[in-house]
Amino acid sequence: MPHLALYTLAVCVLAIAAAVVSFARGSWLGIIWILIAGISSNMAWYYLRKARADRAADRESSTGAAG
Fold first, then answer.
1. Of 7, 21, 41, 63, which has fewest CB within 10 angstroms of its CB?
2. By CB neighbour count within 10 A (0-12 exposed, 13-18 middle, 19+ buried), where does 32 fall?
3. Are 1 and 48 in contact (CB under 8 A)?
4. Distance (Å) of CA 66 to CA 51, 54, 63
5. CB pairs under 8 A, 24+ apart, for 5-8?
6. pLDDT tens-digit map of 43-53
7. Local structure of residue 1 (DSSP, 8 states)
8. Taking the complete model, does pTM exceed 0.85, yes or no?
9. CA distances (Å), 37 to each of 15, 23, 32, 46, 50, in order?
């Protein structure tokens, strides 16, 4: 798993925890944490899909060069 995907996934989990704590204390600031969690989740998916596409392109180019 790419490092950037792991970092953004960690940010997502921490933002969700912060949102839960914020809502439990009665603060509406948790909405901001939910938005941050959504953005970091999308970034994690992007980096995962990009890494898979890069690996597939590398495999295809190495297979094409050998054949």
1. 63
2. middle
3. yes
4. 23, 18, 5
5. 5/44, 5/47, 5/48, 5/51, 8/40, 8/41, 8/43, 8/44, 8/47
6. 999 999 999 99
7. -
8. no
9. 5, 14, 9, 14, 20
pLDDT digits (tens, 9 = 90+) for 13-66: 999 999 999 999 999 999 999 999 999 999 999 999 999 999 999 988 888 665
Measured CA to CA, the distance from residue 27 to residue 20 in angstroms comes to 10
DSSP H or E run through 2: none
Q: In the structure encoding, which two tokens stand for residue 67, read together?
A: 């054949």
